[in-house]
Design goal:
Elements (H helix, E strand, L loop, with lengths): L2 H14 L5 H16 L6 E3 L1 H8 L4 H13 L3 E4 L8 E5 L9 E6 L5 E7 L1 H12 L10 H10 L4 H13 L3 E2 L3 E2 L3 H19 L24
Antiparallel strand pairs: 1-3, 2-3, 4-5, 6-7
Helix pairs in contact: 2-3, 2-4, 6-7
Length: 225
Amino acid sequence: MNYIKHLNGVFLQFSKDNRLNPTHISLYVGLFQLWNSYHFRDSFHINREEVMAYAKIGSKSTYHRCLKELHHWNYLYYRPSHNPFQGSTIKMFNFGTTDGQVVYPHQTKSGTSNGQVVVPINKHIETIKNKTNGVKRDRPQNEKEVVAFFNNKNWPMAEAKKFYCHYKSIGWKVGGTAEIVDWHALAQKWIFKSMEIKEEKTVVPVSQNTDNLKSSSMKNFNQPL
């Protein structure tokens, strides 16, 4: 995990996403700091008060709203916990796709280079895409690209086809309305949700017909307690 590339990549996404406000960004940075302290584990538990202190958020409703929106917009995966002793689970997506700003030499009237011009990274990336006929990561080219991506991650092939068919049928939009920022992150979220559903299905429910008051041994009620 290269955290410098990750931060460059995620801040690039921030600059293109008009849905975000400063509270979303400060919350993400607070969660990133915790992720760093956990040595970039696949997932980690969070304490609400600790995260709110890092992000300088004073309202619990604002905190929960922004966290759910970051989850919905595929910046992270948020799994709330109903256990007060465990805390909610966060899984961060890797946005490490770029090195940062690109510096070009600046030519003077005499033709000599005596300075530098910093080119906005958004423009540089778009230029690279135009030159290489690259495809934006907001959606895959075809089903084969999705299958290859899932294969590389050792994820089930069936889930790759489900993912592709589902989002193709709704025009590659989240919730049917919001544009996808990064389909790789969306696929990661899809797998996490699939794993969560499987875990819930493995829980054996307690039968409502079980009489828990019955005992297999006879008790002598003449004995004192």
